[in-house]
Specification:
- There is one protein chain.
- By secondary structure, the chain is α+β, with helices and mostly antiparallel strands.
- It is 32% helix and 36% strand.
- It has five helices and seven strands.
- Helix 1 packs across helix 3.
- It is globular.
- It starts with a strand and ends with a strand.
- 29% of the residues are buried.
Length: 171
C-alpha cells in the first residue's frame, strides 16, 4: 500500500533514519547535505520549516509511506498564486522500494492534491539528464518535456543540467 500524507515534526526520527540509510543511494541525485541534515534535530528543523510553508501556502511537503513505513518524501515547493498558480515538484524514494511503482503512485497522489485542493494550474519538475527513472515516472503521470536548463541546480557538488517538465491541470 502506497500513500502520502503531510509531513510533521513527529516524523523527524523516521526521516533521519531513512535519509541516513539511503545517504549513498541519494548522493548522486541531491545537493550536498550538512551532517546535521541526517539527524533527528536536523530533520525536525526542516519539518518545522515545511509546516510553516504549508500553513502559509508556500509549500506542501509530504512523506511517502509504503506498507505503513516512511520510504521517501514528495513536495510541492515555490507555490505561486495569482496568474501563475504553479509549483515545483520534488521527490525521492528509498533504494529498498525503488522500481516498485512507489514514486509513480506518489506523484499521482500529489498531483491530485495540486490540481484539486490547491487548485494549481501547472506543476513543474526537473531531472538530471541521465535520470531516466524519474523521467519515466513523470511521463507516466502526464508530464511533458519542455526543455533543458543548463547548470540549473547544484547536485552532488556540481552545477548540473536538468531536463524540465510540466504538467497542466486537465480542467
Amino acid at each position: 500500500m502506497i500513500r502520502i500524507r503531510p509531513a510533521g515534526v513527529e516524523d523527524a526520527v523516521a526521516l533521519a533514519e531513512a535519509y541516513l540509510a539511503n545517504r549513498s543511494f541519494l548522493a548522486p541525485w541531491e545537493p550536498v547535505r550538512p551532517e546535521s541534515y541526517f539527524t533527528p534535530a536536523g530533520q525536525r528543523a526542516r519539518l518545522e520549516q515545511a509546516t510553516a510553508e504549508r500553513e502559509s501556502g508556500a509549500g506542501y511537503g509530504c512523506v511517502i509511506e509504503y506498507d505503513g513505513q516512511i520510504c521517501g518524501t514528495i513536495t510541492l515547493s515555490s507555490i505561486l498564486r495569482g496568474p501563475a498558480q504553479s509549483a515545483n515538484l520534488g521527490y525521492w524514494v528509498a533504494k529498498s522500494v525503488n522500481g516498485r511503482g512507489v514514486a509513480t503512485r506518489a506523484v499521482g497522489l500529489i498531483l491530485d492534491i495540486a490540481f484539486g485542493e490547491l487548485d494549481l494550474h501547472q506543476v513543474m519538475a526537473g531531472t538530471l539528464l541521465h535520470n531516466t527513472g524519474s523521467q519515466r515516472v513523470l511521463g507516466r503521470n502526464g508530464f511533458d518535456r519542455i526543455g533543458v536548463a543548463r547548470a540549473h541546480v547544484e547536485i552532488a557538488g556540481e552545477w548540473q543540467d536538468h531536463i524540465l517538465f510540466q504538467r497542466l491541470t486537465d480542467r
